[in-house]
Design goal:
Blueprint lengths: L4 H10 L6 E6 L2 E5 H11 L4 E3 L7 E7 L3 H10 L4 E6 L12 E7 L18 E7 L4 E8 L4 E8 L2 H11 L3 E5 L4 H10 L3 E5 L1 H5 L2 H8 L10 H18 L10 E2 L7 E2 L1 H7 L14 H5 L5 H12 L5 H15 L2 H12 L4 H9 L5 H21 L5 H9 L4 H10 L20 H28 L5 E5 L3 E7 L12 E5 L3 E5 L1 H33 L2 H27 L5 E3 L3 E7 L4 H4 L8 E6 L5 E5 L6 H17 L7 E5 L3 E5 L12 H15 L5 E5 L7 H17 L6 E5 L15 E11 L2 E10 L7 H7 L4 H17 L29 H9 L3 H14 L4 H4 L7 H5 L5 H14 L3 H14 L8 H17 L1
Parallel strand pairs: 1-5, 7-10, 9-12, 10-11, 13-23, 18-22, 21-25, 21-26, 23-24, 24-25
Antiparallel strand pairs: 1-2, 2-4, 3-4, 5-6, 7-8, 8-9, 14-15, 15-17, 16-17, 19-20, 19-22, 26-27
Helix pairs in contact: 4-5, 7-8, 11-20, 12-20, 13-15, 14-20, 15-17, 18-19, 25-26, 27-28
Length: 940
């Protein structure tokens, strides 16, 4: 059997888009056939039917109404599919045989531009990745078709660097060479959900320079490398071929170097929750959630870019900070500015629609209303004097010529469809006005006809109606047919309860009305196209204005959060010091009850306090403290005020974090493997201007192995001249606290904990000195483990401690046979635990000496006896300061920094009393509760 002509046409069109789902226009529906129909019916939950196609079996088929296509397309694109739109290219009523059809657009995840289904505060990037192995070079290019953004860079190939850049932009689609290594593709897939489009090598080679030179008039292609031109040219060609329209709004070739911005690797972005939370994968709970108080979609996208790409140029940072400060000092003017910004629509994406010829009249009115507010915004800018604000004032184009054109041409409330008329305003075009008068007079005649016919026939229910099939008609119910004067009407249609009639005069007027309406619709569309093309000539001006408005909106947002959250202006330096007084975590403090966040100081530099070893139990706040330091640095380098009482921030070039642990079982990587990979990446790429956060390095393996690795990492960071960078190192290995005094720049800090009986209270305060225990069982109790488990854990711990009381840990590599002396006795790595505690508890020097003598008598142990159990290098341990008086003085200092625990208990008791629901308690419950409260109160 032979295929039907229509199916032959379908297969011919499908041959040009084999990697797409083909939406084939048939009348008022888009139909899908064969495999496309099976995929679409499953993904869109459509009924799968069949159609005779000339073969033995019916072709699988499903369809959707063309007017509802956008929502279906959006669902498919979000799942990674590409859609080819095949339209009828001629009027079916005027054609003979099969209607000519062709693909008018290919919609892919990276080229989707329908603003109704895109996140308004997030760019929709398509990316091109091109590599030349023999030169060890990589080029990356990113474009947003909806806004016209176009950014590109190149670098020597380093997979981690490439992944970091991709994570920064989070593209929805990546164009790659056909022969790109699968390992690279899999590494990208592990980090983001993205669609890959493989292109042949020739696609990146043919006419790339010509395409770039044509698209960007001011770009001199001889100033850029061949690999970069291939990458950018390939992306431009792909977008042109899929969109099948001009791309005038993609007119700025933005080349940047990766080192121009603060580098934050993909793991750190995730750990620090810059734009989305770790758990929910949503904006809420992220730094962006706190900082985004923008009033426009353009500003929202720009602020996201600022967070993704903090600055490293001190002058640029300072300009933003000075602008925020000036806005804060003029808050009454700022309120007016915010009100004006709220009424400005998304000019960037409106310009993209104008360029792609998809804008409608309603959207042009949005553009006009937005432009109307710009002179007012510029007037407000005139009140500010700081450098950045002054530049904005000078560069802000008011676009009043475009406003005048749109105001004169387009109706305030036009039709959404540009081919239904009701678009052009009266007085703009004389011919349009004449057609409108003819159409209006004709409809007036029709309206008067209904009244006159009712009077003549005496039929009160007579009405004049219209439909597209029969045109105008007179409708009379069957019960009144006998009242019609003989020969007055011509029967046209019979309904169940009525008859429809026409008259020669009615058909004559219909011809005049419909003729005028059709001509009016066509003429209005022609004039609309002329207006759109005139506006399109000024795309670059509108984009510059949109960019200025977006940056102003970002600065406004930074001022709002600074005022609302009591942030301070940081002092930006280049002295390799980060000094924060009463710093707070910007996100955590917004989630917990107001005023309950415990602030902390930090002073870290490249010399005497270069690496801070932070000890303390789980849940005490170590990770929060470390994250808040990184976030404060990032906020400062964005140009934002920061959550602190005061801050001096030295500009960092890179931030690395190794916080949290997770298995990557799908890739066959354990927790420890992932941890070591991340640490390796940090040690390879960090510089002496970087900030490193390391949390629990080595915990994924055995205690001895983990401690050894953690120790070695600390040594490497402190001793390697290329590194020696600012580092926060949180650990449960208390042995690492011994490094203070051994390694230059290492200092110990810990989280304050108060023991109340068998319970503990976390004070969330970071104090000088190391912690002496982990409180693991107490934390388990707080987490709600059964009492039986807690009791058993304590028994086991006591047994282990008793059995190991005589164990001594000394470096396993030590070869001497030196006995332990009294001078070594303060290190619990050497001594019997109970005896050592006895020594440390003696305040009187005489008593201390007696205790030491008892200890020496009971513990006559040589180094050889414990060599096999040792962990720590003996020479380093012997250099530790064991002066009891100094240690006692340091401990007293730490205690003075702690909060008043009695006040905490009293406050908790008051809260508990105020929360008692006495009305819902039995008398016995009430007595019991009262007894419990009295008992607790007596202990305070």
């Amino acid at each position: 059997m032979a295929l039907t002509p229509m199916m032959q046409q379908y297969l011919e069109v499908k041959e040009d888009c084999r990697d797409c789902i083909l939406f084939f226009r048939l009348g008022d529906f888009y139909e899908m056939f064969f495999e496309d129909a099976e995929i679409a019916s499953k993904e869109l939950e459509l009924v799968l039917t069949g159609r005779e196609c000339g073969l033995d079996k019916r072709a699988p088929m499903c369809g959707i109404p063309f007017h509802a296509a956008n929502s279906y397309i959006s669902r498919l694109v979000n799942k990674g599919y590409k859609i080819a739109i095949c339209e009828q290219l001629e009027d079916p009523s005027a054609s003979k045989g099969i209607v000519r059809r062709g693909i008018v657009k290919v919609i892919t995840p990276g080229t989707y531009t329908d603003s109704s289904f895109l996140e308004e505060n997030k760019n929709n990037y398509i990316m091109s990745l091109y590599m030349e192995k023999e030169k060890n070079m990589t080029a990356l290019c990113f474009a947003d078709v909806s806004t016209g953004d176009f950014n590109c860079t190149e670098t020597s190939f380093d997979l981690s660097v490439v992944l970091d850049e991709i994570s920064k932009y989070s593209p929805k689609e990546i164009l790659i060479q056909e022969n790109l290594d699968d390992e690279i593709i899999e590494s990208i897939k592990e980090r983001i959900q993205v669609t890959f489009s493989r292109l042949g090598e020739e696609f990146f080679l043919a006419k790339t320079e010509e395409v770039i030179a044509k698209q960007f008039a001011n770009v001199k292609t001889n100033e850029y490398s061949a690999i970069l031109l291939k990458c950018c040219g390939g992306l431009l060609k792909y977008v042109m071929e899929t969109q099948k329209t001009s791309l005038n709004h993609i007119n700025e070739f933005n080349y940047y170097s990766i080192v121009d911005y603060l580098s934050i690797d993909s793991n750190s972005r995730r750990n620090l929750e810059l734009t989305e939370s770790l758990r929910e994968k949503s904006k809420k709970g992220s730094l962006l959630w706190v900082m985004d108080k923008t009033n426009t979609a353009m500003g929202g996208r720009q602020l996201r870019k600022w967070i993704e790409q903090p600055l490293i140029d001190k002058t640029s940072i300072q300009k933003r900070l000075d602008s925020v400060e000036e806005i804060l000092s003029n808050m009454s003017i700022h309120e007016d500015l915010k009100d004006a910004l709220k009424e400005i629509y998304d000019i960037e994406r409106l310009v993209g629609k104008i360029s792609s010829k998809s804008v409608n009249a309603k959207e042009l009115i949005f553009l006009k209303n937005s432009i109307e507010k710009i002179p007012y915004v510029k007037n407000i800018l005139g009140f500010f004097q700081s450098g950045l604000m002054a530049d904005m004032y000078e560069n802000l184009d008011e676009l009043q010529d475009i406003y005048k054109l749109l105001d004169e041409a387009i109706l305030e409330s036009p039709s959404i469809s540009v081919k239904e008329g009701n678009i052009i305003k009266e007085g703009y075009n004389k011919e349009v006005d004449e057609f409108k008068i003819a159409k209006a007079h004709g409809k007036e005649w029709i309206a008067s006809l209904e009244n006159s016919e009712r009077e003549i026939t005496g039929i009160k229910s007579l009405k004049v109606g219209y439909n597209k099939v029969f045109g105008y008609y007179i409708e009379i119910t069957k019960s009144n047919l006998n009242s019609i004067p003989e020969g007055r009407y011509i029967r046209k249609q019979t309904l169940a309860n009525a008859e429809r009639f026409i008259t020669p005069e009615l058909k004559e007027m219909e011809e005049k009305i419909l003729g005028a309406e059709e001509k009016l619709i066509n003429l209005e569309y022609e004039i609309f196209v002329q207006v759109r093309e005139e506006v399109e000539k000024h795309v670059d001006r509108m984009q510059k204005t949109a960019k200025t408005i977006a940056e102003l909106d970002c600065l406004s947002s930074l001022a709002v959060i600074a005022l609302e959250n009591n942030y301070c202006k940081p002092k930006i330096t280049n002295n390799e010091e980060v000094c924060i007084e009463e710093g707070r975590h910007p996100v955590v403090e917004k989630i917990i009850p107001s005023g309950s966040f415990v602030s902390n100081n930090i002073n870290i530099n490249a010399s005497d306090e270069q690496l801070l070893v932070i000890t303390g139990p789980n849940m005490a706040g170590k990770s929060t403290y470390m994250r808040q330091v990184a976030l404060i640095v990032i906020m400062a380098q964005i140009g934002s005020f920061v959550p602190a009482k005061a801050a001096k921030i030295s500009v960092c070039d890179k931030i690395f974090t190794r916080i949290g642990a997770s298995d990557d079982l799908a890739s066959g990587k354990s927790t420890f493997m992932v941890e070591m990979w991340e640490v390796s990446n940090i040690l390879k790429n960090a510089t002496n201007k970087s900030l490193i956060l390391l949390d629990e390095v080595g915990r994924g393996t055995s205690t001895y192995d983990g401690l050894s690795i953690a120790w070695a990492v600390v040594e490497y960071i402190c001793n390697n001249k290329r590194l020696k960078c600012k580092t926060l190192f949180a650990t449960h290995y208390h042995e690492l606290t011994k490094l203070e005094g051994i390694l230059e720049g290492v200092k110990n800090y810990s989280v304050s904990v108060k023991e109340i009986g068998s319970d503990i209270v976390f004070l969330r305060k970071i104090i000088r000195g190391g912690a002496d225990q982990s409180y693991g069982i107490e934390v388990a109790k707080l987490a709600g483990l059964p009492d039986e488990v807690i009791r058993r854990a304590k028994d086991i711990l006591n047994r282990i401690e008793n059995e190991s009381a005589n164990d001594i840990n000394i470096d396993q590599f030590t070869k001497t046979n030196t006995p332990i002396t009294k001078e070594d006795s303060n290190c619990d790595l050497y001594l019997n635990r109970d005896a050592a505690i006895s020594v440390n508890e003696q305040e009187d020097s005489k008593e201390k000496e007696i205790a030491l003598d008892k200890l020496e008598d009971s513990q006559s142990i040589s180094l050889d006896q414990v060599k096999k159990d040792s962990l720590i290098n003996k020479e380093k341990l012997m250099s530790l300061d064991t002066n009891f008086e100094e240690k006692k003085k340091a401990a007293d200092t730490n205690l003075s920094l702690q909060m008043d625990f009695g006040d905490i208990e009293k406050e908790n008791l008051i809260k508990e009393i105020t929360n008692i629901d006495i009305l819902n308690m039995t008398p016995m419950d009430g007595f019991n509760k009262l007894y419990e409260l009295i008992k607790r109160a007596k202990t305070l």
